Amino acid sequence: MSLWIVAVILGIVEGLTEFLPVSSTGHMILAAELMGVQDTWKQINTFEVVIQLGSIMAVVVVFWRRLWAVVGVRTGEYKNKQGQLNLMHVIVGCIPAIIAGLLFDDLIDEHLFSYQTVIVALIAGGILMLIAEKVAAKNNHLSESLDKLSYRQAFYIGCFQLIALWPGFSRSGSTMSGGLIVGVGRKTAAEFSFIIAVPMMIGATGLKVFKALDTMSMSDVPVFIVGAIVAFIVAMIAIVFFLKLISKVTLKGFAYYRFAIALVFIAYMIWR
């Protein structure tokens, strides 16, 4: 299959799933396996990380006022707000995954970028979501404002983001589950997940590209760009849809979806 077609398909998969708690990386690995490029294209792991930058740029566009406010440039509705989300929340939320990512990036690349490990992560992540929903059901005081997020809650959510280093767990799924467990509402946890994803994914992309420089060729660059552009366009639509959806539904449906996808690929492993 042409790499251009692969780039477009994976860009669509990435854009649709980056902000849903179903694991975009996991879905890309499974899709790449079905298309026969997971083991034949040497840059596939790098591609699967780099095109996520397209989705993250969609976050920058949608949340640009909030992101400016985080770094201290307050405009519009955030101009006179006090006690709002600030840069320290983002730093505290990112530190756990940054440290773990730098320490274990090579190990993750070597052992966790396969459809078999993704299947395990899909199931485990679904179980975590069901546990989080059970915990949240007992809490009548979930925080529904991003501006009321404490540093402690930001750190705990960041610790849950560690799990998302395992492809298939899902960054948004892990952080939203962690948010529910520590008393943060679904929409608030989702928004914080999107915001801390910006520095995390920019850093992860930079690290991945730096490590792959020796093996990359100029012919890879246009394919990467096409995938990122497609992911950006699709993610712009997906973000708006998901933020409206998550305030009306629980994580249970996403957990059951993860179980279903895992079963489909278990059957694929058996019968292929």
From TrEMBL:
Membrane topology: Multi-pass membrane protein
InterPro entries, sorted: UppP (IPR003824)
Catalysed conversion reaction: di-trans,octa-cis-undecaprenyl diphosphate + H2O = di-trans,octa-cis-undecaprenyl phosphate + phosphate + H(+)
Main location: membrane
Gene Ontology CC, one term: plasma membrane
Transmembrane segment boundaries: 47-64, 85-103, 115-132, 153-169, 189-210, 222-243, 255-271
Alphabetical list of Pfam families matching this protein: BacA
Subcellular location: Cell membrane
HAMAP family given in the database record: Undec_diphosphatase (MF_01006)
PANTHER family for this protein: UNDECAPRENYL-DIPHOSPHATASE
Name the UniProt record assigns to this protein: Undecaprenyl-diphosphatase
Gene from which the chain derives: uppP
